[in-house]
Write a structure and sequence with these properties.
Number of strands: 7
Helix content: 40-55%
Distance between the termini: 21 Å
Strand content: 5-15%
Order of helices and strands: HEHEHHEHEHEHEHEH
Number of helices: 9
Number of domains: 1
Low-confidence stretches: 221-238
Oligomer: single chain
CATH architecture: Alpha-Beta Barrel
Shape: globular
Length: about 240
């Protein structure tokens, strides 16, 4: 069990991060971090296409600048580009000016490559304080974490990734997976193989994989707009 799955941390995180959408029906969001990755992102896109699934890709600005063609392919195939920052720096170690640069540079790289302005942001390592969430909201982003994380980046084995996901996945969940790495091209073959089984099992349960934007819009039409978040905790699964 990761810290994300502990009751104390998840309750704290849901006060300022989107972790799940409780009133979503028969759908969940699937997300990928740290891309684009020339070794794995195209394979992920092929699996998603076979299943008619859509996903949100939390992209690193540095990787986008190196692989703009893959970033464009993500958008062209109907997926949502989202911001994971310019580099994979933990927010607690950054001053406000550093956070601002990290977020805005990442967003600018995505928009320059894809002509789409990202609306959602995920903090590297999944940690941010409530004040940092408010600051990032002032930059135009809704901060997103998730409620299902199988630690696929640690490569625990395909079967273990699938078991961890299917034990926790529910309608309204936000699943965290990895197609890339901040350290360059990484082997995400286990994630790709597990994705095929996860999507098949979800289809058997009558659940559809979609983007974070679609998941939020399906439940609350306007909560993905930061200026509507006067009381965000009512939307975060509490």
């Amino acid at each position: 069990m990761t810290i994300l799955h502990t009751k104390r941390f998840s309750g704290w995180a849901r006060g300022h991060l989107v972790c799940r959408v409780d009133d979503a029906v028969n759908r969940f969001a699937i997300t990928f971090d740290d891309g684009p990755n020339p070794r794995s992102t195209p394979a992920v896109l092929e699996v998603l296409a076979r299943h008619g699934a859509r996903a949100t890709f939390f992209l690193l600005g540095g990787n986008v600048r190196r692989h703009e063609d893959i970033a464009r392919r993500i958008v062209n195939e109907g997926h949502e580009p989202a911001n994971h920052g310019d580099g994979h720096w933990p927010l607690p170690f950054l001053l406000p000016c550093g956070i601002r640069s990290h977020v805005l540079r990442g967003g600018q790289a995505i928009e320059s490559a894809t002509a789409v302005k990202p609306r959602h942001y995920r903090p590297p390592f999944g940690f941010m304080a409530p004040g940092q969430s408010r600051f990032i909201r002032s930059l135009g982003y809704v901060s997103v974490l998730g409620d299902v994380y199988p630690e696929d980046a640690q490569r625990p084995g395909v079967d273990r990734i699938v078991r961890r996901v299917m034990a926790r996945l529910r309608p309204g969940s936000i699943l965290i997976l990895h197609d890339g790495s901040p350290l360059g091209p990484a082997d995400r073959g286990q994630t790709v193989a597990a994705l095929e089984t996860i999507l098949t099992e979800a289809e058997h349960r009558g659940w559809r994989a979609t983007t974070v934007a679609d998941l939020l819009a399906s439940a609350r039409p306007d909560i993905s707009r930061p200026d509507k978040w006067a009381h965000p905790t009512k939307y975060l699964g509490r």
